[in-house]
Amino acid sequence: MEKTEENSTFKRLRNRYRLVVMNDDTYEEVVTFKLSRMSVYIGLCTIFVLLVGLTVMLFILTPLKYYIPGEGASRQNKIELQALKMRTDSLEQAIKYKDQYLNSIRQVLTGNAGIPPRDTTMLKVPKADISND
């Protein structure tokens, strides 16, 4: 059963068709092509691969690569960017600590810096049974 399906599919791919381009006014044949489904498939795949290859080459060999994130930066730029990130993080941390310090001083000056409330919940501790076994 599979063999007949393979043969029919293969035969359909190999069947020859004629593509005729005609002049509409005179019905004269301008161009005639003899094609098969396989040749059309191979032709379209070839065009697709060529277009992808040309697009990749366009980005690799021209200054367009600088618009791709992470590709256009030189090693020196990456090192400088990393140093700036570290410096920014440390400055943000320092600002955070100063804000906490100023908020603590503000609370002390306004009298809101009281002692936190005590935990007055009762704990129920079970009594241990001490029996002589």
Features:
single chain; 133 residues; mainly alpha; 2 domains; two-stranded antiparallel sheet; 56% helix; transmembrane helix; Peptidase M23; transmembrane
Structural class, judged by helices and strands? Answer: mainly alpha
Beta content comes to 5-15%
Largest sheet, spatial ordering of strands: 1-2
Distance between the termini: 84 Å
User: Helix and strand succession?
Assistant: HEEHH
Domain module count = 2
Q: Could you tell me the radius of gyration in angstroms?
A: 40 Å
Largest sheet: 2 strands, antiparallel
Shape type: elongated
Q: Considering DSSP H and I runs of 4 or more, what fraction of the residues is helical?
A: 55-70%
Oligomeric form: single chain
- Low-pLDDT runs: none
Mean pLDDT: 86
| DSSP strand count | 2
Number of helices in the DSSP assignment: 3
Topology:
Layout: H1 2-14, E1 16-22, E2 29-36, H2 37-61, H3 75-110
Antiparallel strand pairs: 1-2
Describe this entry's structure for a reader:
This protein is mainly alpha-helical and about 130 residues long. The protein has 2 domains: about 1-70, no CATH class; about 75-110. Helices cover about 55% and strands about 10% of the residues. It has 3 helices and 2 strands, in the order H-E-E-H-H. The protein has helices at about 1-15, 35-60, 75-110; strands spanning about 15-20, 30-35. Strands 1-2 form a two-stranded antiparallel ribbon. Strand 1 (about 15-20) and strand 2 form a beta hairpin. The longest helix has about 35 residues, at about 75-110. Keywords: Membrane, Transmembrane, Transmembrane helix. This is Peptidase M23. It comes from Ilyomonas limi.
